[in-house]
Design goal:
Low-confidence stretches of chain B: 257-279
Strand order of the largest sheet of chain A: 2-3-1-4-5-6
Strand content of chain A: 15-25%
Structural class of chain B: alpha/beta
CATH superfamily of chain A: Pyruvate-ferredoxin oxidoreductase, PFOR, domain III
Number of strands of chain A: 6
Number of helices of chain A: 7
CATH class of chain B: Alpha Beta
Distance between the termini of chain B: 51 Å
Mean pLDDT of chain A: 89
Chains: A alpha/beta, B alpha/beta, C alpha/beta
Order of helices and strands of chain A: EHEEEHEEHHHHH
Strand content of chain B: 15-25%
Bound molecules: thiamine diphosphate, iron/sulfur cluster, magnesium ion
CATH topology of chain A: Pyruvate-ferredoxin Oxidoreductase, domain 3
Largest interface: A-C, 29 and 38 residues
CATH class of chain A: Alpha Beta
Number of domains of chain A: 1
Number of helices of chain B: 11
Oligomer: heterotrimer
CATH architecture of chain B: 3-Layer(aba) Sandwich
Number of domains of chain B: 1
Shape of chain A: globular
Low-confidence stretches of chain A: 193-198
Structural class of chain A: alpha/beta
Distance between the termini of chain A: 9 Å
Helix content of chain B: 25-40%
Order of helices and strands of chain B: HEHEHEHHEEEHHEHEHHEH
Strand order of the largest sheet of chain B: 2-1-3-4-8-7-9
Largest sheet of chain B: 7 strands, mixed
Helix content of chain A: 40-55%
Chain lengths: 198, 279, 421
């Protein structure tokens, strides 16, 4: 079975990085993964997105018609990807920057105060890591411990001094979505049907 | 304070050929300033209607969205050849190329040298930001020694990648070149001087005096890995050390100050004659 | 990063970077390139790694410069890689023709983007004609290999050097923007082909007669003779270097023919179509020249129709039609300009073909019942020997087991492998 996740927002919001960490975590659990960035000059200041596909067999199509989950960081991304999330899927919304709602009752829409939580963690730029925490809380794609390990590997290698804050941001995102109002048990059941529908 | 209200006076407005769209350039990028200067000069000279401009491949490939002129997009580096073709069949046109340093000083070295050598009646605006902006900040021939880029990760080293190329100085020795100068976008005073040079380079073409080029030192905050203010400071304090500002050659108005060894090619005189006839 | 029973390591790598590293590990002595999206990271990786290895790296002043630096280095017998993307490959066309003519082995990678002209920077397969039918002028062919995954690209780099040196010919690796930009887990297990003695290479005529690497043969008789020699070589390549992979072909009634990224889209589409009851298989050419024509022709004898999927307006489809010679209907589904067909679009095209394919079979049966000239082969639905082996490698590779390992057959995680298909 394949699961696909789209991360989308402004260039500079750490979109590609969030996808990279998720892909690394999934790979470390033994899954097959494919990470595909949007690339080119439109990334400068414009919209950036990346797709992560996780599966138990080598991944087929890099093009996803209906992602199982979307993590959106700005209003245009919600408008673009909100409507195409698979019914029963997860939609993580950066509540700090997006007022609109998706209006969908067939997805688990998780609203996360990314900027506030990132600030709380110690670096208000880490909205991507906060949102990743929320995603993992609601969509059982990868164990949180694997994401922490991936952060240790990727951040630890490049900016070891920032690692603690990244881990904190991830845990805050994770906790915030674990406590969110919608019924987690029901959602989890729906989630496991996602993809099977394919 | 005077009780008499002065009639409103326009002190600053959008040049007519500058379109009202927001550019795709990164915040703080110098390309926008150069576009504006060029637009002002074109307005002042009243040549917009007969301008055919040639766009490069680089971040300014979308220049046709920002300056409302006729544009031809050239393959990477080939703008001077494309402009030559335009010039030779449109003697009444005002022909411009707008090129980056990768475009002009690397892949297009041959084209620019020979357009200048032929003394083509074209004006080249050469935006030197010392880097390949569009493709993600790789080293250009103009990159400073020691400068780190994505393809010179430990800094440009002369033993491996040679020295920064002073293209405009090299072109200035060619007798076909009527005007060559180097300006910058670092501060208002430099910008003012740059505009004067662009005007001069355009007038040289209009008077049929030969090839003209203005190199504009510009910044690329993204490619340089700096904030916009840092990049401007760097431009002012470091880049000008390798690329001194000022007029490099001025053979306009019959001046031959650079000791040009040869008289103007006779072919040019013929063509400027044609210009006068049709203009 | 996890440890592997085989001792190799599995890491997440970007296509451009993995290909570059694989080339280094395959013994690449020199790399020449020029920045262009979507292949710039390949050049950037080489900029860092080649000096570390004490090997040659130059960011050339243009693609014309890069390919000719390649010509010079390769003429001395060095193992040389040059890479670019579509517009840059057009500039290299001249050099490719000269190297084919003067029999200089080199590997050139095209990470294709949308064209024509400056086009877009998004993934594309619209340089198929350029790669397979041409680039420069003259009577020549160049082997072209098209990987479908990053791991496969890493293996094919080694193969490309091997084939280039064995036949003294340029070899092209045809990838696309997705393959270059995506990250996938790859095994850090590399292959370094043996070097064969280059008894033609320019090393200085010290104690031996001088050698000349050239493509000029002014006397037409001489040039014809040289060209016939080249043709002889191309025939040998065509005979020995065909590569392809198949999936779910045993019971397939319809077949998708696709390479590279298009084959991955097809793979997902096939899973969906099979869930809907359509029996679809995948035929994936890996060598685009030589094209696996004979195998496709054989396959055509036992299926109802073929759908060619490409990231182009339809280029490889012409070679499929030539190979199949009208035996079955050939449909085409593609997107162009940097767009990628979605699996659902492909499923839709399959459904359409399913109906026309049925019609075609009925009319063929009807034709056969009629007296008169035979209009179709009698053995239309007989099984061909093709079914014996699903992977072209087993049937055709001459390099032994390790030479060719499509990722789809060797999922690197043993616990997850197993007869799922
Ligand atoms: C033949 C060819 N090779 C490479 C490219 C890729 N390319 C696009 S822009 C560019 C360099 C741009 O640098 P520069 O001219 O300095 O302009 P800047 O973006 O810095 O303004 C390159 C190499 C191309 N479009 N065509
Ligand atoms: S990359 Fe550099 S040159 Fe290009 S738009 Fe950004 S700042 Fe300007
Ligand atoms: Mg530049």
């Amino acid at each position: 079975m394949e699961r696909s996740i789209i991360f989308a927002g402004f260039g500079g919001q750490g979109i590609l990085f969030a996808g990279h960490v998720l892909a690394q975590g999934a790979m470390d659990e033994g899954a097959e993964v494919l990470w595909i960035p949007s690339y080119g000059p439109e990334m400068r200041g414009g919209t950036a997105s990346c797709t992560v596909i996780i599966g138990d067999e080598p991944i087929g199509s890099p093009i996803v018609d209906h992602p199982d989950a979307a993590v959106v960081f700005n209003p245009p991304s919600l408008a673009k990807f909100g409507p195409i999330v698979m019914p029963g899927g997860v939609l993580v919304v950066n509540d700090s920057l997006i007022e609109a709602v998706s209006g969908r009752d067939d997805v688990d829409e998780v609203r996360v105060r990314c900027t506030q939580l990132a600030q709380e963690a110690g670096d208000d730029r880490l909205i991507n890591v906060v949102a990743l925490g929320a995603l993992v809380a609601r969509a059982p794609l990868v164990r949180p411990e694997s994401i922490r390990a991936a952060l240790r590997e990727i951040v630890g290698r490049k900016r070891p001094e920032a690692l603690e804050i990244d881990l904190r941001a991830f845990d805050l995102g994770l906790a915030s979505a674990s406590q969110a109002p919608s019924a987690p048990a029901a959602q989890a059941a729906t989630w496991s049907d996602v993809g099977a529908a394919r | 304070m005077s009780a008499v209200a002065a009639a409103p006076r326009v002190v600053y407005e959008r040049p007519a050929v500058l379109t009202d769209v927001s550019t795709r350039y990164c915040p703080g990028c110098g390309h926008g300033v150069v576009h504006r200067l060029l637009a002002e000069v074109i307005d002042e000279l009243g040549v917009a209607g007969r301008t055919i401009a040639v766009a490069p491949v680089g971040c300014s490939v979308f220049a046709y969205e920002y300056l409302s002129l006729d544009w031809c997009e050239a393959p990477h580096g080939r703008a001077p050849a494309v402009a030559t073709g335009i010039r030779r069949v449109r003697p009444d046109a005002f022909v411009l190329t707008y090129q980056g340093d990768g475009d002009l000083a690397a892949i297009g070295t041959g084209e620019i040298v020979h357009a200048a050598a032929r003394g083509e009646l074209i004006t080249t605006i050469f935006v030197n930001n010392g880097i390949y902006g569009m493709t993600g900040g790789q080293m250009a021939p103009t990159t400073l020694l020691g400068q780190k880029t994505t393809s010179s990760p430990t800094g440009r080293e002369a033993s491996l990648a040679g020295y920064p190329v002073p293209m405009t100085e090299m072109l200035a020795v060619l007798p076909g070149v009527a005007f060559a100068g180097r300006g910058s976008v670092a501060d208002p005073s430099a910008i003012g001087k740059t505009k004067a040079m662009i005007r001069k380079a355009c007038e040289a073409q209009l008077r049929g005096e030969g090839f003209a080029i203005v190199e504009v030192l510009s910044n690329c905050p993204v490619g340089w890995g700096m904030t916009a203010p840092e990049s401007i400071r760097h431009l002012k304090e470091v880049v000008v050390g390798t690329y001194p500002l000022g007029v490099l050659v001025d053979r306009t108005g019959g001046k031959r100050n650079a000791g040009a060894p040869h008289p103007a090619p006779s072919a040019r005189a013929t063509r400027s004659g044609a210009t006068a006839q049709e203009g | 990063m996890i440890a592997h029973p085989g001792g190799s390591r599995r890491v997440l790598m970007k296509g451009n970077e993995a290909i570059a590293e694989a080339a280094i590990q395959a013994g690449c002595d020199a790399y020449f390139g020029y920045p262009i999206t979507p292949q710039a990271e390949l050049l950037e990786w080489m900029a860092r790694r080649m000096p570390e290895e004490g090997r040659a790296f130059i960011q050339a002043e243009s693609e014309l410069g890069a390919i000719n630096m390649g010509l010079g280095a390769a003429a001395t017998g060095a193992r040389v890689l040059v890479s670019s993307s579509s517009p840059g490959i057009s500039l290299m066309a001249e050099g490719m023709s000269y190297m084919a003519g003067s029999e200089v082995p080199i590997v050139l990678i095209n990470v294709m983007r949308g064209g024509p002209g400056l086009g877009s920077i998004q993934p594309s397969q619209s340089d198929y004609f350029q790669a397979v039918k041409g680039h420069g002028h003259g009577d020549y062919r160049v082997p072209v290999f098209a990987p479908s995954s990053i791991g496969e690209a890493m293996e094919l780099i080694a193969t490309a050097f091997e084939v280039a040196e064995r036949y003294r010919t340029p070899v092209m690796l045809l990838a696309d923007g997705i393959l270059g930009q995506a990250m996938e887990p790859v095994d850090l297990r590399f292959r370094r082909p043996e070097r064969i003695e280059a008894a033609w290479a320019l090393t200085g005529a010290d104690g031996r007669p001088p050698r000349v690497v050239r493509s000029l043969h002014l006397v037409p008789e001489d040039l014809e003779e040289h060209n016939l020699h080249l043709q002889e070589k191309f025939r040998a390549v065509a005979e020995h270097e065909v590569r392809w992979a198949g999936e779910q072909l045993e019971d397939a009634e319809l077949v998708i023919v696709a390479y590279g990224t298009a084959a991955r889209v097809a793979r997902t589409a096939i899973a969906r179509a099979r869930a809907d009851g359509l029996k679809v298989g995948l035929f994936r050419p890996i060598s685009l020249w030589p094209f696996p024509s004979a195998l496709l022709a054989a396959l055509a004898e036992r299926v109802r129709g073929m759908l060619v999927v490409e990231l182009s307006a339809g280029q490889m489809v012409e070679d499929v039609r030539l190979a199949v010679e009208g035996r079955v209907p050939i449909a085409f589904d593609g997107r162009t300009g940097g767009m990628v067909p979605s699996p659902d679009e492909v499923v839709e095209a399959l459904r359409e073909l399913d109906t026309t394919g049925l019609a075609a079979r009925r009319s063929r049966r009807a034709r056969r019942r009629q007296p008169g000239p035979v209009s179709g082969p009698e053995h239309t639905h007989e099984r061909t020997p093709l079914a014996a082996s699903e992977s072209g490698h087993e049937a055709l590779s001459i390099f032994g087991d390790d030479a060719w390992m499509p990722l789809w057959y060797t999922s690197p995680v043993p616990s997850r492998r197993g007869g799922k298909r």
